[in-house]
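hi! just following up on the protien thing from before. the input was this:
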Amino acid sequence: MLTVEKIGGTSMTAFADVLDNIIFHGREGAKLYNRIFVVSAYANVTNWLLENKKTGAPGVYHHITQGQEFSRPLQDVAAQLKELNQQYEPLGLDLAVADAFIQQRIDQAQTYLESLVNVLASGYVNSVNILQAAREILASIGEAHSAFNSVNILQNRGVHATLVDLSGFDDAQPLTIDERIRQAFTDIDFPRTISIATGYTKGTEGIMREFDRGYSEVTFSKIAVAVRPQEAIIHKEYHLSSADPNLVGVDQCHPIGFTNYDVADQLADVGMEAIHPKASKPLEINAIDLRIKNTFEPEHPGTLITRDYISPTKRIEVITGTEKVVIIDIHDPLMVGAAGFDLHLMQVFFNLGVSYIFKATSANSISLLIWEKDLKPQLVAALEAKYENVTVQPAALVCLIGSNIDEPGLLARAAGALADAGINIRSAGFALRKVNIQFIVGREDYKTAIIALNQALG
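and the predicted 3d structure came back as:
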């Protein structure tokens, strides 16, 4: 059975567990092969190269955008990567070979980046395109590092492993992402090797431009579509669970056994990504099943996500949400009966690249929920210039999600559970298909709300 398997950065850092729990795990001989592993950079490496994904703390890329000297920070990253290499020497990594590879890649990247910076300084080119190219070059380094190390370790353990470096550092072919992937895998004899592919893929459209930090899952998805495996698998450091065990307690939740891509999209919309939504669509369209597994519990089958799964019984599959949101209420007496009023409102959001994750309307009021990080001063200013009254409040979103949750009384039971916990519902809503019932509550009530709903409905 051919599989395409994605290993995330946290799991890659614990590579001894990856070897024991994923790559080997009782396999030997021919059973080791017929698998493609798409690897992320080790934890934090891409943060050092670009910026911290969660905090925004600057990396090497920041020095380039600010016109600052960047070679020293880049070489500092090279030193950090060599320090990482030392952790994997006991697993079989040839330290001298691995250090030489990453130093050569960093030096090559520095040459490319110096050329870009010189062109940028000339003032004759569009800075956006040059900076985007710099971002692509930097992003590719982390995955090349971890992929090379993985292949080296496996080969030194007597396993036939093939490095599939999709970063395109050594060629100037004007290939799209899909073309590069198809070309790279054309001549590989899958039953006789383990393929280790970089999570970054070079393409004329720019994978960072299209998908930014979700690029490794997009590469994983595109490889799966190209080779048509029996199953695609993502290995994470946790189970896809019915609720956050850190909030409700490990004994108060359980891994989700089965669900569908629609539910996966709902989870991604509130920040609980099973898979990047732009990576899930090709899998769903091509009817490729996706399994989410916990790296550290290899015996557990994990969560199987398919296109057509519907729970045979009415039940909530996931209770989740986020406290990193704000609610914006736009009140205007001219709204009532005015055709296309919210079209003009949406144009303001579109112009500033802001997407909402919840919307509720009344005769003369529209409330929208957005991520707090997207609350730009210019957004509020633009809204206040057009509408009579604009209110912005910190908030939290809690959701009941499932493939078959449309049952009488569910909304009442959920609202009752929140009321019994002393929580006031600020807004609520769901679409006709009832895959996701959403409640807006005060940010201070988020944890209490999740626990209350889980106790009542989980």
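The CA atoms of residues 103 and 283 lie 36 Å apart.
The two ends are 35 Å apart (CA to CA).
cheers
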